[in-house]
Design brief:
Layout: E1 2-6, E2 9-12, E3 17-24, E4 31-38, E5 44-51, E6 57-59, E7 67-72, E8 77-82, E9 91-99, H1 107-117, E10 121-122, E11 126-131
Parallel strand pairs: 2-11
Antiparallel strand pairs: 1-3, 3-8, 4-5, 4-9, 5-6, 7-8, 9-10, 9-11
Length: 132
């Protein structure tokens, strides 16, 4: 599995950015892709994740209503549209992925768990800086 994130940059508070994550290596839709971030001196936070199986999504409370995760299966790409950016959104953003286990557990539950605990495959980070 390989992941390539892009789209970071410098933006003023209230502005928008869109991150892209190009994924390869999955042979079925039993996967989840997520966005995580780490600010200087802080721990890693799962920002938003999406299931390739059914599009179930998870958002951290800190970004609900401002960020939207989406996927383009034809391009094997997941996007994170970030609106109404705040200085506290400044961080290195990472794209990550993992396989979804098959079974009775709903995709939403699996995606939430992966977004909270982390995933097995990671791409290089992209810096997002929001100035006040």
């Amino acid at each position: 599995v390989q992941l390539q994130a892009s789209g970071g940059g410098l933006v003023q508070a209230g502005g928008s950015l869109r991150l892209s994550c190009a994924a390869s290596g999955f042979t079925s839709d039993d996967y989840a892709i997520g966005w995580f971030r780490q600010a200087p001196g802080k721990g890693r936070e799962g920002v938003s994740c999406i299931s390739g199986r059914d599009g179930s999504t998870y958002y951290a409370d800190s970004v609900k209503g401002r960020f939207t995760v989406s996927s383009d299966a034809a391009k094997n790409t997941v996007y994170l549209q970030m609106n109404s950016l705040k200085p506290e959104d400044t961080a290195v953003y990472y794209c990550a992925a993992d396989f979804l286990q098959r079974g009775p557990i709903p995709s939403y539950t699996l995606v939430t768990r992966l977004c909270y605990y982390g995933m097995d495959y990671w791409g290089k980070g992209t810096q997002v800086t929001v100035s006040s």
